[in-house]
Design brief:
The complex is a heterodimer. Chain A has 2 helices and no strands. The radius of gyration of chain A is 18 Å and the shape is elongated. Chain A starts with a helix and ends with a helix. Chain B is of the alpha+beta class. In chain B, strand 1 and strand 2 form a beta hairpin. The longest helix of chain B is centred in the first third of the chain and has 37 residues. Classes of the chains: A mainly alpha, B alpha+beta. At the A-B interface, helix 1 and helix 2 of A face helix 2, helix 4 and helix 5 of B.
């Protein structure tokens, strides 16, 4: 179980990396128009 | 238009090329000083294919860095370099490919709301994501037996949990903590005070247990409960922000309409572009088709039609001949005109409408005020209960004392209670706004749910605008077809609704409207006169109009709303009657309302015979004609003395005292000038059937508010004793609190589903 002493701190750091990604997604408005973007590819001319 | 404005060859958007102008709809890119982000509103962009074309076309211009078009909001975001391109160039390009654009002038307000919503979502995401991780480290401590895990491993997990809880405490929970602090500074007890006390106490206890285990505080950590509590509180807040923005979205659509720059006739007689904020009363403006009128005024030159649907609910274009008044916010449809400004800014009908909608969205309904009143003593009760829990347990187990107090604070968190009313009201208001119903006062939802009597104060609400024409009589010795030709020809060029109806009627009966006619004249409030060549070759002066105008002495008795005569001198050539046509869904709607126990009455200022006729067609028992405003007021007061709750339905215009006296009121029917309507709710459009589902939806809303309040009260009543007795661990208290809040919100979200077709199922 020694590996957990390495993995738990790594996991915590990974959380902050992922949160960084989510921050980017929110700030660029990825969650603001959920319906339209899905149908966009179907209607492109 | 005889004179073409001099700008026609130049780019009409040149006025936007001044920095102060484009700053009104643009934001500077923070890292690059000469790069700007602009938001424009684009007409005719209705599908994703359109947005693709716009993006493709604008992106190919040199100096445009990126484009994003959203068909849903009809908005385009353009990032451009001021050193390489000017706004007028890409505005012109948008126009060339068929999508005329308007700058979004209230950019800052929109951006504020977006920023607020993003920040709330970000707080929520941080809290939820950290909560999930903390749960993973908490899970083994719940399941493993005491000697399964090494003590240093347990300690490592506590540290990891602490690190993950920090962002939740320091960032996600700050709205609660700072609001609690603010209300304490004002020596007031806000909803956030007990919540914050609970959060801080749990965090302090857990931190002590992590870094200094073994004190009186014990060595149990509550990071999982804490993060979960904050997450669920934030879900409630976020849904609240979303609901609010959804309602505000309808308002925003309105405010986006006015143009930013207009063409004004200068003293030298040339057309110059000026900012819309610089328009003054008396200015002469040039408005092209497809543009929106920037101010109230009248047509000075030209002849066009306008789309006023947004302001009046009238979906058909309205004719705007020379001298007609045009209103700010309506669209110019067919041809370019010159207009003289009579009202600007705050004085316009458009502004009155925007204010009306804004006030509706901020006003608190009566039932919500009640909840606020209850809140203060309730919060004191909560604090006392928490203190009691501490005292009760302190001597036996200090750690348990603190955590019982936390459980009390958490379980009583009045989120559910405070969400109960606004969530339901806002959900309904948003749904109504989407369905073309504007709510002036949120109280109206409650009031309408209570009515038992509906009084229609105008026949026009129940009947079509178009009038049905019948040829009652025509002179035996004249050719009937020729008379119809005369009617068609005379009514051809008039804009009066009656003339339009006559023209349509005559054409239906194979009449020609191209007879040779001389000296055609229209007399307002009377009719028309002209001279024709009779079939026998003589010149014949003909009048078409009402009895007085045509010199008919005794009007025939009739159930018709109006009678029209065609005369030549003393000879009456024909008599026509116009009747109102019952709206297609009116009968079904009225019988549905009656079936649900509502008493329907009709009070009209029209003549008695047509009113009675209409009432019998619709199955209305109680109808009266020739009613003046005083009579109506008297009638409504009489009903109220009998203990009835009266809903007035009409155009909401001329019956101010009646509307004020009635319990509540709805203005409906096309052509209602919204801004002057004093009614509590305004139904855009013409469909009377909406009324049925509107009333049933209001009833449903109040039912859901009551369910929510009852549920929240029951939950709190059951939770507090359990928490004081220490039977409710903090995590369970948090879960209970969150579940009750979510139930309340989900219950409210049922109201966003609105079936407009009739009375909703499952209702009394």
């Amino acid at each position: 179980m020694e590996i957990a002493f390495l993995l738990i701190p790594l996991a915590v750091m990974l959380v902050f990396v992922i949160l960084g990604g989510l921050w980017w997604a929110i700030q660029t408005g990825q969650f603001e128009d959920l319906e339209e973007e899905g149908s966009r590819i179907l209607e492109h001319d | 238009m005889s004179n073409t404005p001099s700008y026609s060859s130049a780019n009409p958007w040149q006025g936007l090329d001044i920095q102060s102008e484009w700053e009104r709809f643009s934001q500077r890119e923070t890292s690059l000083p000469h790069v700007w982000i602009s938001h424009v509103w684009v007409d005719h962009m209705n599908c994703a294919a359109c947005s693709g074309r716009i993006e493709h076309s604008i992106k190919s211009l040199p100096g445009v860095l990126s484009v994003h078009a959203s068909a849903a909001s009809k908005r385009v975001r353009v990032v451009w370099d001021a050193q390489k391109i000017s706004p007028s160039q890409w505005f012109a390009n948008l126009n060339e490919i068929g999508y005329p654009a308007l700058p979004v002038n209230e950019y800052s307000a929109i951006s504020d709301r977006t920023v607020q919503q993003r920040k709330m979502l970000w707080r929520l995401v941080v809290a939820v994501f950290c909560m999930m991780q903390v749960m993973m480290y908490a899970y083994p401590t719940y399941t493993a037996s005491s000697n399964d895990m090494a003590p240093d491993m347990v300690q490592l997990m506590k540290w990891a949990s602490w690190v993950l809880t920090l962002p939740v405490m320091l960032f996600s929970a700050t709205p609660f903590l700072s609001q609690a602090w603010a209300s304490l500074k004002q020596r007031q007890l806000g909803m956030d005070v007990p919540v914050s006390l609970g959060i801080v106490a749990a965090f302090v206890m857990s931190t002590l247990a992590t870094f200094a285990p073994g004190g009186w505080w014990g060595d149990v950590v509550y990071y999982d409960s804490l993060t979960m509590f904050v997450s669920f509180l934030l879900i409630g807040r976020w849904l609240d922000v979303k609901l609010r923005n959804r309602t505000a979205g309808a308002l925003e659509n309105m405010m986006r309409r006015l143009p930013n720059a207009v063409l004004k006739k200068s003293d030298a007689g040339e057309w110059v572009q000026i900012a819309a904020s610089n328009i003054n009363v008396g200015d002469v403006l040039y408005v092209r088709p497809g543009e929106v009128f920037a101010a109230d005024g009248k047509v000075l030159a030209g002849n066009t039609s306008a789309d006023e649907s947004m302001l009046t609910g009238e979906s058909d274009p309205v004719m705007k001949p020379l001298g007609a008044s045009v209103i700010a916010g309506s669209g110019n449809l067919t041809s370019a005109i010159e207009m003289q400004v009579e009202q600007v800014g705050e004085g316009t009908q458009y502004h009155a409408l925007v204010n009306l909608m804004a006030s509706a969205s901020t006003e608190k309904p009566g039932i919500a005020l009640l909840a606020d009143k209850v809140a203060q003593p309730f919060l004191w009760g909560v604090l006392l209960a928490a203190i009691y829990a501490v005292i009760y347990w302190w001597t036996t187990d200090p750690a348990k004392a603190i955590m019982s107090a936390v459980a009390v604070l958490v379980v009583t968190c009045p989120c559910a209670l405070s969400l109960a009313t606004p969530a339901a009201m806002l959900a309904s208001a948003g749904t109504f706004a989407k369905g073309g119903i504007l709510i002036r006062r949120l109280q109206a939802i409650q009031a309408i749910s209570e009515v038992d009597t509906i009084v229609f104060d105008k026949t026009g609400t129940l009947t079509e605008n178009l009038q049905q024409v019948t040829l009652e009589d025509s002179h035996a010795s004249w050719d009937r077809q020729w008379i119809l030709d005369v009617i068609a020809t005379m009514s051809r060029d008039s804009l009066h609704p009656v003339a339009k109806a006559l023209h349509g009627f005559a054409l239906q009966h194979d009449a020609q409207d191209q007879l040779v006619m001389q000296d055609w004249q229209e007399i307002v409030g009377g009719g028309m006169s002209a001279t024709f060549h009779a079939p026998n070759g003589t010149l014949l002066p003909v009048k078409l109009g009402n009895a007085e105008f045509c010199g008919v002495s005794c009007e025939a008795e009739s159930e018709a709303l109006r009678q029209v005569y065609v005369t030549s001198g003393e000879i009456m050539l024909a008599r026509l009657s116009l009747t109102e046509q019952v709206k297609p869904h009116a009968r079904a709607a009225i019988s549905q309302l009656i079936a649900h126990g509502l008493d329907i009455q009709l009070l009209s200022g029209d003549r008695i015979a047509p009113v009675k006729n209409l009432a019998s067609q619709l199955g209305i028992q109680n109808a009266a004609g020739l009613q003046k405003a005083e009579d109506k007021l008297q009638h409504v007061k009489l009903l109220q003395q009998q203990g009835r709750k009266v809903l007035m339905v009409g155009d909401g215009l001329n019956d101010g005292p009646v509307i004020a006296a009635a319990h509540t009121s709805i203005a409906m029917g096309s052509g209602v000038p919204l801004t002057q309507a004093q009614a509590d709710m305004v139904v855009l459009g013409n469909d009377i059937g909406v009324l049925v589902s509107l009333i049933s939806h209001c009833k449903k809303t109040i039912l859901i508010v009551k369910q929510n309040l009852l549920w929240a009260a029951l939950y709190n009543a059951a939770g507090v004793p359990l928490a004081i007795l220490g039977l409710l661990p903090a995590w369970l208290a948090g879960l209970g609190m969150a579940t009750s809040s979510l139930l309340v919100l989900l219950n409210a979200l049922r109201l966003t589903d609105w079936d407009k077709s009739g009375w909703q199922k499952g209702q009394a």
